[in-house]
Design brief:
By secondary structure, this protein is mainly α. The chain has helices at 8-18, 28-37, 45-54, 85-91. It is elongated, with a radius of gyration of 24 Å.
Length: 96
């Protein structure tokens, strides 16, 4: 075992920090840079990636738009996510 390997407590602390509200949307490289700017760091970038991989958290770490499932928003949208032609036609009134 390498002398500089993080123990369980430090790995848990790193995971808690990475999942904190300040860093949850950031990739490991930005977390590492911000921690260095603040005057310290807990682990290297590759170690942060390893910890995230071990905990099945390697994914896109930015906020992604979440859309409601089809049929839960606008009543004119059907369950399959398409517009009802009949309702669209009755809403459109053309002036001659």
């Amino acid at each position: 075992m390498p002398a500089n390997k993080l123990n369980r407590v430090d790995r848990a602390r790193t995971l808690d920090l990475v999942n904190s509200s300040n860093f949850v949307d950031l990739p490991p490289i930005q977390i590492y840079a911000q921690l260095l700017d603040q005057g310290g760091h807990l682990a290297s970038i590759s170690t942060i990636y390893r910890i995230l991989t071990e905990n099945k958290q390697v994914k896109e770490r930015r906020r992604l738009a979440r859309h409601p499932p089809p049929g839960t928003g606008d009543p004119r949208i059907g369950r399959d996510g398409t517009w009802s032609r009949a309702q669209l036609l009755c809403r459109c009134r053309h002036k001659s």
